[in-house]
Every structure is written in C-alpha cells, then in structure tokens.
C-alpha cells in the first residue's frame, strides 16, 4: 500500500515536466494520492493537461495565485470535486527578470511587491482558501524554498527576500494550524534546471557550486524533492511541523 493511499491533494505550480511540482505530483500519485493540479493561464493549460492525463483520476483547475477571484473559484471547484483535502503542495515563485541580476539595492518597489505577492503571500492566500476543506486533524501543507532565503547567492536578490518571507510564513501558519492537527513544512531544494530557475542570471554557477561543494558532490533531482515531499505529507511525518527540510545534498552545512 502507498504512503498516501486514499488521500486527495492539491498541487499548485506545475508548468512542465521539469517543474519541481511535477516531481512531487508524480511521487504523490505513485504513493496512491488522487490529485487536483492547477495551471496559471490558458497558455499553459495544454501542457499541464497532457501531464495530468498521465495520472490516475486527476482533476484540472485554473489558478493565477495573484487573483483573489481565481482563489475563490478554485475553492468552489474543490468543494464540488472532492470531499476533503488531505494536503496542499505550493510550488510557485516569480520575479521580474531584471530583478534577478545586478545589485540587490536596485530592486524596484514594483519588483519587490510582485515577487513577494506571487512567491510568499500566495502560500497564505492558498492555505486560507483551502482551509475549510483541509482535514482536521491530519491535513498537511508543503511549500518549496531555497537556501537563498538565508545566505547570499549572486543575482537571486529579491527572491531571497521573498523566500525568507515564505519561510517565516511557514512558521506562522504552522502555529495557526497546529492546534487543529494541520502541519505546515517547507523543503529547501538544491538548484534544479527548471523554467523558474532559468530566470536567475548565472544559475549554472549555482549548479556547479553545489556539485563541487555539497557533501554528496552532485546536484539533486526533482524526483528526490518529490520523495521528500511525500514523506512530509504522509503520516510518517505526523510529529513534524514548521520545519525547513533541506534536500540539497547537504550543501547548507558547508562553510568555506
Ligand atoms: P517552474 O517549473 O517554473 O515552476 C514555477 C511555477 O510557478 C510555475 O508553474 C509557474 O507558472 C508558477 N507561477 C508563477 N507565477 C504564478 C502565478 N501568478 N499564479 C500561479 N502560478 C504561478 O520552476 P520550479 O523551479 O519547479 O519552481 C517551483 C518552486 O520551487 C518555486 O517556489 C521555486 O522557487 C522553488 N525552488 C526551485 C529551485 C530550483 O532550483 N529550480 C530550488 C529551490 C526551490 P508559469 O510558468 O505559468 O508562470
């Protein structure tokens, strides 16, 4: 029997087959979960539709996380399509390309607001939207962060600040929802080549740095993030909340 047998989950953030969200969706489906996947807009619908078709019993729904009306519509679709939700996977981030190069000091007010809205506030808004459906006790939320929240990576800039906000939000949400038996955790993933990652100037340098310095001396894969997410979502992690779990080959422990 799979670790998530009989469970239903919402996965937000699949853009294509390289997406970390897709790594999580595949692992969760393999472990027996039924999934609702979202796509940001019509342009991406076909992509996500094709992927969703490879999963058993999945449901597809549109959702741009910056639009309150989309979040409301998503909650309505969920209420119609599923009895309750066992888990939510949040794997969404965005910053203007020009904010992901050069000096952090040059971050614009608009760029700051947009990056924080899409990459951090969206977790709070999504949790609130699905809260009535989340199983209490037993529900679980997982989001994805990066070490740039804690340490300086060239050009990661405003996304580092947004990830720090996301990680703080994990702790506050864990505190809010813990009394109901709902857990909230994050995976801090090492660099993986994805659409979002390609927006960071010099990203190949991140990959190389991790390969050379991480104790495991290699880069991680989306499937490894998927398996760790399954663990955090499953009853095996029932005593864990407010945690940032590193899936980075151990890079986070390195000094010089
Ligand atoms: P990805 O495949 O490009 O996924 C990012 C997702 O965010 C896409 O599905 C994207 O949709 C979505 N998104 C952006 N703006 C949105 C909006 N307004 N509404 C709804 N969805 C929106 O890249 P990824 O690397 O897998 O990113 C997933 C998460 O992992 C992000 O939080 C990222 O920061 C985190 N992470 C990534 C790495 C890495 O090295 N790749 C490492 C650590 C953490 P569109 O394509 O339609 O914009």
What does this molecule look like?
There is one protein chain. With 256 residues, the chain is of the alpha/beta class. The protein is 40% helix and 14% strand. The chain is built from seven helices and seven strands; from the N terminus they run E-H-E-H-E-H-E-H-E-H-E-H-H-E. The chain has helices spanning 20-30, 42-52, 68-81, 109-130, 157-177, 203-213, 222-233; strands at 8-12, 34-39, 59-62, 87-90, 140-145, 183-189, 244-247. Strands 3-2-1-4-5-6-7 form a seven-stranded parallel β-sheet, sandwiched between helices. Helix 1 (20-30) crosses helix 7 (222-233) and helix 4 packs parallel to helix 5 (157-177). The protein is globular. The protein starts with 7 loop residues before the first strand and ends in a 9-residue tail after the last strand. The model has no long low-confidence stretch (mean pLDDT 97). Bound molecules: NADP nicotinamide-adenine-dinucleotide phosphate.
